[in-house]
Amino acid sequence: GLVPAMIEAPGTPQSSWALAAESDPDPTWRFLSLLQLLRPLPPKGPKKAPAVGPVEAPQVATLDQISPMAEATLAKALWEDPLPQVRYQIAQRLARMPGTPGTLVAKATLRSARAPQGIDPADPMGVLLTRAGAIGLLGRVPGAEAGDLLAELAEDKNTPVDLLFPAAAGLARRGDLAAMDRGVQAQEGRGHAFTNRMLAGYGALGDPKRLGEVVQVIRDHIDERNVVGEILRGLFFNEVLRKSPELPAAVADLVLGPPPLDEDLQARALEALEGLNTKEARMVLQAVRQRAKAVRIRILADLFLQRTFG
Questions:
Q1: Which of 98, 113, 173, 273 has the fewest Cβ atoms within 10 angstroms?
Q2: What is the rounded radius of gyration, in angstroms, for the C-alpha atoms of the chain?
Q3: What integer pLDDT is reported at residue 56 of this predicted model?
Q4: Pairwise CA distance, residues 42 & 121, whole Å
Q5: DSSP 3-state assignment of 117?
Q6: Percentage helix, strand, coil, to 5, in the chain?
């Protein structure tokens, strides 16, 4: 079976992880090796003595901090790894990281988003999965070509439903909410399954200053629990927003402001602040603990306060 584990091998050079990522026959180990390459390089100079106390989670780089060797290996995996799931998962991980990818990763992402190489044509789901990962990562790729392709996919009424969410998430990461709105309108005639995939992408918003627009989208679809739940889930995994002071205010609006979300969705919105150690998050959790009408929500806010702030 699968065991959740954290690999700690501080003495292993990046070249060893790169070799494993490129040539190990085990796809799980290739993927774990790629994750190791996402860590920032250790600082030069004398090593510090290990601290006494709890073991901290390994630090993850931003896209701008990835070393040249790591970037080359990641780009090769995005374009050449034989298993679609490895390509998809590493693209997903890169898409959630702040920053801008380098030229090699950007080029591999654009090519894979259009037509992946090396995937068996007899495996259409593998081709679709590989494209979906790359399309979502386009939200981090600079330049008009990436933005134009995302808008084209969002507005095309022939785009497969499985590609609409990554296209919408990519546009949201770029902050192109106008293109997202056009995509939602273009997909309306195809049915709820298609528009819902577009709307879910708002949770990947890359510009904290525009969170108010996402809150309004949630308000406009307050009776569509599945859509709202997907947007809120996206906020929970959105590291760019979680590092911003704007997210707690948006959560306060959703939990305490009118019209109220139902209790389950209030809990989902509040979960976006779980583990967030900022003064803004603390103030909002304290306000929810005092003012929320539902006992369950007050208890949840108190639990997060105790876990994070003691």
A1: 98
A2: 21
A3: 40
A4: 42
A5: coil
A6: 65, 0, 35
- Would you state the structure tokens that stand for residue 101, as one six-digit string? 């990818």
For residue 168, the surrounding DSSP H or E stretch is: helix 161-174
**Residue labelled with tokens 């959790």:** 285
Question: How far apart (Å, rounded) are the C-alpha atoms in residues 214 and 203?
Answer: 8
CA dist., res. 200 & res. 162, Å (int): 12
Q: Is the pLDDT of residue 197 over 60?
A: yes
Through-space distance between the first and last CA atoms of the chain, rounded to whole angstroms: 36
Residue type for position 248:
P
Asked if residue 92 lies in contact with residue 239, where contact means CB atoms within 8 angstroms, the answer is no
DSSP 52: S
- Bond before 259 cis per omega within 30 degrees: yes
Six-digit token pair at 219? 């308000």
Listed residue (108, 153, 158, 155) closest to 134, CA to CA: 108
Burial annotation 273-303 (CB, 10 A radius, 16+ → b, else e) = beebebebbbebbeebbeebebeebeebbee
Contacts 24+ apart (CB under 8 A), 268-272: 268/229, 268/232, 268/233, 268/236, 269/232, 269/235, 270/297, 270/300, 270/301, 270/304, 271/232, 271/236, 272/232, 272/235, 272/236, 272/241, 272/242, 272/247
